[in-house]
Sequence to fold (916 residues):
Amino acid sequence: MVRIIWAQIVRRWTRSAALGAGLVVAVTSFIVLTETAETSRLDVTDTVATNARAAYDILVRPRGAGTGIESSAGLVRPNFISDTEPGINMAQLEAVRRTPGVEVAAPIAMLGIGMPDLRVPIDLGQVVPDDERSAYRITLDWRTDRGLSQVGQGEPSYVYFTPNPVEHKDVFTVPSGGAVSGSALDEITSSGARMGLCGEQFGVVPPLLRTSPMQLVERAQCYSLTADSRSYAAGKKAFFLEWRVPYVMAAIDPQAEADLVGLDRAMVSGDYLSSIDVSDQGEQLGHPVPVIAANRPFVDQEVVAKIERLPDATAEQFPGSLENPASLGSFADTAPGETVATVTMDSADATNYLLQNLGSAGGNTQLLSYWTASPTEHSISSDGTLVPREQDVPPDVWKASQNSYLGKAPATAGDVNFRSMESHRLQPGKGPSDAANLILAGRFDPTKIESFSALAEVPLAAYQVPSLSGADEQTRELLQDQALLPSGNPAGYLQQPPLLLTTLDAATGFQGAYGRAPENGPVSAIRIRVAGVEGIDDVSRERVRVVAESIAESTGLTVDVTLGASPSGQTVVLPAGELGRPELKLKEWWTKKGVAVVIKDAVERKSLIIFVLVLTVCGLFIWNASAAAVRVRRAELGVLACMGWSRNQLFGVILGELVFLGFLAGLLGVVASRLVGAGLDIDVSWPRALLAVPVAMIVSVLSGLVPASVAARSDPLAAVRPPVSDGPRGHLRFGILGLVVANVRRVPGRTFLGAGALAVAIASLTLLLSITWAFEGTLVGSLLGDAIAVQVRKPDVVAVAAMLLLAVMAVMDVTYLNVRDRVSEFATLEAMGWSKRALTTLVVSEGALLGFIGAVAGVVVGLALALGLTGGEGLGRLAGVSVAAGAMGIAISAVAALLPVQAIRSKSIATFLSAD
Fold:
């Protein structure tokens, strides 16, 4: 029998070579793809494990905290702490800290937003003369949103300098009722005469316009160049710009914050909070509150000041003419001016000036009022984008005190607002001695905070810049490829993080005197690190789960597990503003909870699925090739049966031939898998490459069992029986379509093999496209998911490409065998007048129908696998991807049938008949 097997292999070397080549391709593909899948799985597991741990594992917030979108989508909004109301009491904090397994519990209490009375100097030393009167017109242009929003001052301001002394008025009378004005300063001439300067208008201010924030109306500033004058900023050549710099304040536990993120190691000047004793501050007016400040403002706001020098004659009119500020309109507004300087200042300049003010002994450090902002509410459009809802902020919210008409609104408060604001002013009967008195202890650099993987980043309160990037080309162009930052409007969409941090003990100074005492407790959130957590392994995940459940049961607070979280981009459409900013389509990074766990589980399932699919498609390909070998030898096997060969002998000769070819193919597969792996930059190890031999032999035997069993049942009639089984016949009245359907049904086993191989490939393609395109929010759509998608994309593409290649070869083989077995039929049709084109159409249509059957089956299987990986999310999008994959399968089958068609187009009727 061995000699017969060898003789058959040698004598039919073309058929043996074709079958052996198919085995080599299948085995090589299997070895390379399984190596790729395993390497990919290990790489992904390592990436996920490396990036799963963030600053904290559990986030605890007051009961009911978080928006509806957060709850429904498993998200945490960025910079959530800036608008989270207090609601956790100290007893609950202690209960959290006593929970077994809690390593660090870092509380943070949102206090509010302060806006001090800042007068930021614009240096005019280069343009102001020393020995003569001079006056300047100052035109301010406030800009934010990367220059897209602009706030003009309206009426210009003026600054007047004189070499004469300037003193405060000895007598200043303010008439009662309505808007009033009066001269606050006198210029003392060389003759001793007193001339009124710089009247200030107080009292009832017109309603706040969206482009004109309500504030002190100060048309002119008057300064003496004489250093000993009793006036503000005497001897300084500057215009003092009134700038409302909002800053967000929060209270922390210094030691817990140091343990959690290393805040103490991020200090760049001064002292950390844990080393400050407020009793060391001496006599202070009000409640001393030590603070540390971030050394950057997190705000995109600048002002461009155009300075024009007025004629000397106009400057001479300032003394005596400023008893009433309205008189400026009669001589200063109409005077020509020469631009002598243009000065640009940004929020960093103002913030530095603020911090210097807080750190100086005579600085204005008291808070007479502060504000809190609500969270932004969103609506969700039909395409899933978030649209923030506008909120109405009444003008009187910005009043400095209960009975004041002077506003403290920042320059950009006239824009569209997306948060409601609540003011907290000193209560009636309370004065500066009752206010919180801020004392700057030091500054910290947020970039020096202990770094965590950007792929597993969670909101870190005061340590991250809130920013949005353009989500489409038009928005990116408008923003000049820069991020959109907070505009300095506390009611705007983007909120600053806490810029000033104090201690929980000192935070009591923000309560009673301002009529604000949180009913449920002062803490807004607690960030928890769990002991013994090493990554997202089962033990670590169980530890975090147990701690989270214990906290929820003992406190009743809202508990979110952030282990394995990752930033997830959400598309936000920001409506056009009132200050010139057009509508913007932006990407905002929210935190997606549990991404790492989902990815780890999904990738492991995907690796197993790919392994099974590769094995299946290789087996179907070899099965089809083996069946083809048996079909080719049907006459020979019938003769052997006539000669008395038993079924076991017929079975053995076919199976032995397949085993021998499998052994040879395995040896070639060892070399081929190493070479292909090197070409694809895949490290195929020798132990895995040597598996090609047993795999090839086992697959050959398993795939050849059915064909060998068919061969064993051969009988003498096989030598003369038609190669195709009796089945339904096509009728010409149905045209080509009838023949196509009938021919595909005539050999069901052959159709099953070809369609089955294609179905497996299409299922794999559907799975790959689903992972690549449709897993947004589950596998990709988060930074960690995006990184994993990049890692798995190459091996997945290689696997699917190889399976598609094998499927195409199987379809071509099936189509070719169909053509060869029906040569007489084709000859008859041609004799009846069928053209070559019609025969070509017939064969290609059969290939397309074969592809349709395989594509439908593959789409169903692939869709089921994809839904299993996504947990049932995104059915509509997955269905669209599946349809695209199915259409591709049909097209591939039709194209694969073109090669066998050439056999028809190149042969004549006589050739067909002789071949039969």
